[in-house]
Every structure is written in structure tokens, then in C-alpha cells.
Write a structure and sequence with these properties.
- By secondary structure, the protein is mainly beta.
- The chain has one helix at residues 2-23, and strands spanning 26-29, 33-35, 39-43, 47-48, 54-58, 63-66, 71-73, 81-86, 89-99, 103-108, 111-121, 130-135, 141-143, 146-148, 152-157, 165-167, 170-172, 179-184, 197-199, 202-212, 220-222, 225-234, 241-243, 246-249.
- The longest helix is centred in the first third of the chain and has 22 residues, at 2-23.
- The radius of gyration is 20 Å and the shape is globular.
Length: 251
């Protein structure tokens, strides 16, 4: 009797999964796509971003974008944006590469966004390429990503940015990029982010590791490993706190 019940449960679970897949099919997208409806989306091939253009724009809430191991790539002249998330809530992007772009991912006026398991690569150009920029957004999780040779790894801006988690990322610069992680105001908001956790990141080869503007609120910088040229952390009289970080200067 128990075997029959277990078999029935297994069949029921498979049917439920199949029904969910039918109701929530993965939609494959091309370069220049605008995702303005909730759902699950994925790449089926590499995407090329033209000069000054955006590879994928997300304006809907409740979106999952699986890069599916593929690459969104630019032309290598510090131009174009791989993925832009605007005015959205509950967005998840994961599992792929962004390279040769002015901005890898930008998150603007959004909330509860997760960027995970991305490989973001630059060419070490000046002005610096930016791996991830978060502007006036809250509850953003940037986790387990690899950043290679972008001049500004993670750039968080504006007083409306708060409660974000920058954790367990690897950021490497091969040509002394300016900053790995930077907190600043925006051109129209003199305040800077607050209430963020910056933890467990490994930073190597940047001129500066983690920098806070003086207008930043209280952010926690904890348990990071930083190999730097000029400074590991620079708080600029902001009330941010740091603890249990380890650092060494590259000579």
C-alpha cells in the first residue's frame, strides 16, 4: 500500500512540474529585446550589442533571465550596455557572460533584483568600464559573480539605494583599474547609499578596493580580502563600518 502511495505521489509531482512548465514556458530572446511582461526568459545563443545600444532591457517585474551559459558582448570600445533593469521588482539574472561593454548590468529605480553567477569582463579601458551599476535601487543582491578587468567593478549610487548585498564576488584588475567597489551620489541626488552589506568579496589589482563617499550612510564592510595598490578601504568620514577585513598592498 505504501509503495502505491509513493508511486502516486511521484506521478503527481511529475504532472505538477509538467503543468507548471506549460503554464510558464521559457521564452528565448534576441539582441535588442525589451522584456516588458513577467515570465522566464533565456538566451539560446550569444548576443552582440551594437555601438551605444542595450542588449536586453527589462522593465517588467517578476522576470527571470537565464543567460544559459551564453555571452552578451559589445564591440570593445567602452560603449553599450549588456542588460538594463529599470523600474522593476523581483528580477533575477544569472548564468552567463557579459564582455567588452561600457556597462555590464545596470539596475535603476528597481527593487529585489538578484545578479548571480555572472562572468563580467572588460578590456581595461579609460574611462573605466563598469561591471554592475546600481542606481536608486534597494534590495539588490550581487552575489557569486566574477569581474575581470573592468575599471569600476560595482558602482552603487544615490540615497534611494539601500539594503543591498554585495557578497562573495571576485573582482580582478590586470591593469590597475581605479576602484573595485564604489559608493557615490548621483548627479541629481547629493545623498549616497546606506544600509548595505559588502561582505566576503575578494579584490585584487585595483588602485583602490572599496570607497565610500562622505555622504554615504551606514554600510557594513565585513570579511573582505583586498590586494590593492593605493588603499584597501576609504570611508571619507562616512559613518560606514568595517570589520574583519584582510588586506595587503601590491608593490
Amino acid at each position: 500500500m505504501s509503495m502505491i502511495r509513493l508511486g502516486s505521489l511521484a506521478v503527481g509531482a511529475l504532472l505538477a512540474q509538467a503543468l507548471f512548465a506549460q503554464q510558464n514556458p521559457v521564452q528565448f530572446i534576441a539582441a535588442g529585446s525589451v522584456i516588458d511582461q513577467p515570465g522566464s526568459y533565456a538566451l539560446s545563443r550569444n548576443l552582440n550589442v551594437s555601438d551605444g545600444q542595450t542588449g536586453v532591457m527589462i522593465t517588467a517585474s517578476g522576470v527571470t533571465l537565464d543567460l544559459n551559459g551564453f555571452e552578451i558582448g559589445g564591440i570593445g570600445r567602452n560603449t553599450g550596455t549588456g542588460i538594463q533593469i529599470m523600474n522593476a521588482t523581483g528580477v533575477r539574472v544569472h548564468n552567463g557572460r557579459l564582455s567588452r561593454l561600457g556597462f555590464g548590468v545596470t539596475v535603476m529605480n528597481s527593487a529585489s533584483v538578484t545578479l548571480r553567477d555572472l562572468d563580467i569582463r572588460g578590456a581595461g579601458l579609460l574611462p573605466p568600464e563598469v561591471g554592475v551599476m546600481i542606481m536608486q535601487s534597494s534590495g539588490v543582491v550581487v552575489e557569486r559573480n566574477n569581474f575581470a578587468n573592468v575599471g569600476l567593478g560595482i558602482f552603487v549610487r544615490g540615497g534611494m539605494s539601500h539594503g543591498n548585498r554585495i557578497v562573495d564576488n571576485n573582482l580582478v584588475s590586470l591593469n590597475r583599474g581605479p576602484l573595485a567597489i564604489c559608493y557615490n551620489p548621483t548627479p541629481t541626488d547629493t545623498r549616497s547609499p546606506s544600509g548595505d552589506l559588502i561582505s566576503g568579496n575578494t579584490i585584487y589589482g585595483f588602485n583602490g578596493g572599496i570607497q565610500m563617499a562622505a555622504t554615504s550612510g551606514v554600510n557594513m564592510i565585513r570579511g573582505n580580502t583586498i590586494f590593492y595598490y593605493s588603499f584597501a578601504t576609504e570611508l571619507n568620514d562616512s559613518p560606514s563600518r568595517e570589520m574583519e577585513n584582510s588586506s595587503a598592498q601590491i608593490r
